[in-house]
Specification:
The chain has 237 residues and is mainly alpha-helical. The protein has one domain. It has ten helices and three strands; from the N terminus they run ααααααβββαααα. Strand 1 and strand 2 form a beta hairpin. Helix 2 packs antiparallel against helix 3, helix 6 packs across helix 9 and helix 8 runs antiparallel to helix 9. It is globular.
Length: 237
């Protein structure tokens, strides 16, 4: 009975988001499957974290969309997320859901949010530099970063890390580790964008998967090394 309720609720959610023109039909189908898996495996609170990411990212995409469209930096399809967008952002978090790693899950989501907001808001900054060479490049260039984008990226990672208590994480050291890894995941995304994506070796989806997976795995490794405990010791000095 519980699974039937979850399926019905997730179907209603996916249809609503599609009706709001935030997802393509295929994107809505992918989001439905992901929502069912997360809710069934780990509970509704884990799903809430991913929903927060989605709606914040959608709002950032729509913000000053006309300006971005004129500049040629706007997302395609009026900002509707396709199945590729959905899977690019959700593949790594879903992997950490399956392996029951809340730290990896949150860090992966933090990286996805940080990268998305840095791209959508940072693109409005005219002073954009290539992350690998610091050469000035046009806004929207793969691997381009700006001061505005970096600040937004850090704040976005902090916002996701702040949701940690929702899924049972209250340690300050762990929360700061998640923040750090989310931000570094966004930087890794930019490095990949400036190198292999610019050369056409991979697409945006593959870069997003790699960056979020990197952030989640880094968080898991750092936790195993006790970095969170070291951070807590520093906070007490």
């Amino acid at each position: 009975m519980e699974i039937a309720y979850i399926v019905a609720a997730c179907a209603a959610l996916a249809i609503t988001i599609w009706k709001l023109r935030l997802l393509t039909p295929h994107g809505a189908a992918g989001a439905f499957l992901i929502a069912v898996l997360i809710w069934q495996f780990r509970g509704f609170k884990w799903l809430l974290v991913l929903l927060a990411f989605f709606f914040i990212s959608a709002a950032a995409t729509r913000w000053k969309y006309g300006h971005k469209e004129k500049a040629g930096t706007a997302e395609a399809r009026k900002g509707k997320r396709s199945i590729e967008n959905v899977m690019g952002s959700a593949y790594a978090p879903l992997l950490f859901v399956v392996f029951d790693s809340p730290v990896g899950f949150l860090a992966a989501v933090a990286a996805a949010v940080a990268d998305n907001l840095a791209s959508e808001i940072g693109v409005l900054d005219k002073n954009v530099r290539l992350i690998t060479t610091l050469r000035k490049v046009p806004p929207g260039t793969d691997g381009g970063v700006s001061l505005l984008g970096e600040l937004v990226s850090l704040l976005a990672a902090a916002g996701v890390a702040a949701l940690s208590p929702l899924i049972g994480i209250s340690s300050a050291g762990t929360i700061l580790t998640i923040l750090l890894c989310g931000f570094l995941g966004s930087q890794f995304d930019s490095v990949l964008g400036a190198t292999i994506e610019r050369r056409g070796l991979v697409g945006k989806t593959e870069v997003n998967v790699a960056a979020t997976l990197f952030a989640g795995l880094l968080a898991v490794v750092l936790m195993n090394w006790g970095v969170d405990l070291y951070i807590e010791q520093l906070l007490t000095i």
